[in-house]
Write a structure and sequence with these properties.
single chain, 0% strand, mainly alpha
């Protein structure tokens, strides 16, 4: 349960960082993909090296943390897009 709560908070945090850089908030999904991909990768690695049960779960959590850190680094590294208020948009008034 704590994993899910952390994942929701983390995705919202990544989306807020992306919005501060004038990017889409959907960059927050990268956090979920990084977390889940790292978790599955860690779990597969643990089973391939002979771990079972809680040992495999430990590797899965370590992989999830690594995936989340990579997602955070990617979003932090995004350059800020300059926003010009005088630039016309495609909105119909």
């Amino acid at each position: 349960m704590l994993e899910i709560l952390f994942l929701i908070w983390f995705c919202k945090k990544l989306a807020a960082i992306a919005r501060d850089k004038n990017r889409s908030g959907s960059w927050g999904a990268l956090g979920a993909l990084g977390w889940l991909g790292g978790e599955v990768g860690g779990f597969v690695f643990a089973f391939r090296t002979g771990f079972e049960g809680m040992g495999a779960y430990g590797y899965a959590i370590i992989g999830a943390i690594i995936g989340a850190v990579i997602a955070h680094v990617i979003v932090q590294a995004l350059p800020k897009i300059p926003f010009d208020k005088d630039f016309p948009t495609a909105r119909v008034v």
